[in-house]
Amino acid sequence: MADRKKQGVESVDAATVHDWIERDQIVLVDVRETTEFEHEHIPGAMLLPMSKFDPELFPTVPGKKVVLHCAVGKRSESAGKMLINEGYEGALHMAGGIEAWKAAGFATEVQFTPPTAAKDEAAAASGEKTAAPEFVRLCPPPGHVLKDEYLEPLNIPQHQLAEKIGVPDAVIRDLINGDIAVNVELSLRLARFFSTAADFWIHLQIEHDLEAARQQIGDRIRREVAPRTASG
Predict the structure, then answer these.
(1) Domains by residue range for the chain, with CATH
(2) What is the pLDDT of residue 58?
(3) Over residues 13-25, mean pLDDT
(4) What average pLDDT does this structure show over 82-104?
(5) Which of 41, 133, 140, 189 could form a cystine bridge with 144, CB 3.0-4.6 A?
C-alpha cells in the first residue's frame, strides 16, 4: 500500500470536491500564486502559493481531508508529491484545477474589482461605446512569478541569481521581460536554487503557454475539431 502511494498523488474530480466542501469535510488549499488567487478563486479556499510551499511545515488538520488545487492540476500534483516525499498522508489534488471547477458549473469569486469596471458600467448605462475588455491571464508567465514571488520578496538582484544558478545575466533578464521561455535545464537550475519541485518552473511555462494559445486560437480549434465520440 505504501509503495502504491509513492507512485503518484491521488486525484479527485471537481464534483467530489464540491460535495465535500458542502459537507465541510475538507480543507481546500490553493497553491497558485497570489496574483492568480486575487483575480479569481474558489470560495473558502486557503491560499498557500507554490513559491512558498514548504512540505515540512504543512499543517495537519484532524478529521478533515486536505485537497490541493491550482489552475489545471499540474502544480497541485507537484505539491502533493512533495508532501508524499515528506511522509504526509491523506493529501489529495483536484484534477483539472480551477478550470475543471468552472467547467463543472461551480462558482468562483474575485477579491477585487478592476478599476475600469465602474467606468464601463457608467458608459454602458449612458449608451456610450466601450473598448473590448482586456484579457486578464490567470497563469502568469514564469518570469513574472520569479520576479514578484521570489526575487523582490527575497531581495535577490537578477545578476546575483544568474551567478548562483550558472547562467548569463541576459537569461534572467530576458526571462523576466518575457523574451524567452523556461526550458527543462533552466527549470532544474531554478528548482535547485529555490528548493521547489523540479518541474515547477516548466509547468508554469506550460500553463501560461496553454492559456495564451486558448486565447489566441481556442475558438478556431473548437470550430475545426470535434470531440471523438464512442461511434468514432
Answers:
(1) 2-103 (3.40.250.10), 142-224 (1.10.260.40)
(2) 81
(3) 93
(4) 89
(5) 140
What CA–CA distance (Å, rounded) separates 2 from 89?
10
Q: Could you tell me the three cell numbers for 198?
A: 523540479
pTM for the predicted model, two decimal places: 0.50
